[in-house]
Amino acid sequence: MPRYNIITFDCYGTLIDWESGIANAFLTTAATDGVTLTREAVLRAYADTEHRVQAASYRPYRDILRDTAVRVAALVGWPLMAERAGFLADSLPSWRPFPDTNAALERLAAVSRLGILSNIDDDLLDATRKHFTVDFDVVVTAQQVRSYKPGHAHFQTARDLIGTSSWLHAAESNFHDIVPTNTLGVDNAWINRQRQTELPGGTPKYKFDDLAGLAGAMA
Fold first, then answer.
1. 13-28: per-residue pLDDT in tens?
2. Has 160 been annotated as catalytic?
3. What is the rounded CA–CA span in Å between residue 136 and residue 39?
4. Which of 10, 100, 177, 210 is catalytic?
5. pLDDT tens sequence across 205-215
6. CB 36: neighbour CB atoms within 10 A?
7. In Å, how far are 40, 117, 175 from 211, measured between CA atoms?
8. Domain boundaries, the chain
9. Which superfamily does CATH assign the domain made up of 6-17+97-218 to?
10. Cα–Cα distance, 165 to 150 (Å, whole number)
C-alpha cells in the first residue's frame, strides 16, 4: 500500500467507540426514570434517526443530538422531554477510543500527517481530542463548514487545506464518507468495524476490519 502525505479520519465510529457511548448514555439516563432499554434497540433506532435529523438545514451538533435523543427515546418507549435531552451531548466527552485507535494513530503519525473530518461542534471535538495520544494537522468540523457529511463541504475544505499533497481519507461510515469521497475522487479506506455491506457507489479503494489493519498496511 502506498504512503500518503496526509491521512484524515472520521472521528466517531472510526476512532471513537460512539456506539458504546450512545448506548451507555441512553441506558444510564433512562434507568433514572425507571425505564429499562436494550443496547440493540437504542442503536438500531439511532442509526435510523440521526442522519434524517442531519439532513435538514444546518444546526449545531448539540441540537442534532438533542432532537435525535428525543426521537430515539420515543421509538424505544421512553417518554423523554426535550429539555432533558441534553444528556447525550453532555456524555460525549467521556466516549472512549477503540482499543486499537491510539496505537494505530501513533504508527501512522510516524509516516504521515494526520487530520480529522467530523460531523461535530468544535468544543465537543476539543473534548474528545484529549483522549488521543497524537495531534492532528488538519481539522474540519461541521460547525466550521456549516454542513454535515455526506455533503461535500468537509472534503472540499480539506482539499483546500491539503493542497496537492497525496491524501487518504479513512472512515467507518460507508454512507457518510466512502460514497462522497468516491464521488469526489479522494482515495479512501473503509474501516469496516461493523462488517457492513457496502452501498451503491460505496466500494472503497482499501478496506480493513479495524484501524490496526490500516496501520499495519502503511506503517
1. 999 999 999 999 999 9
2. no
3. 32
4. 10
5. 999 999 999 99
6. 10
7. 24, 16, 18
8. 6-17+97-218, 19-94
9. HAD superfamily/HAD-like (3.40.50.1000)
10. 23
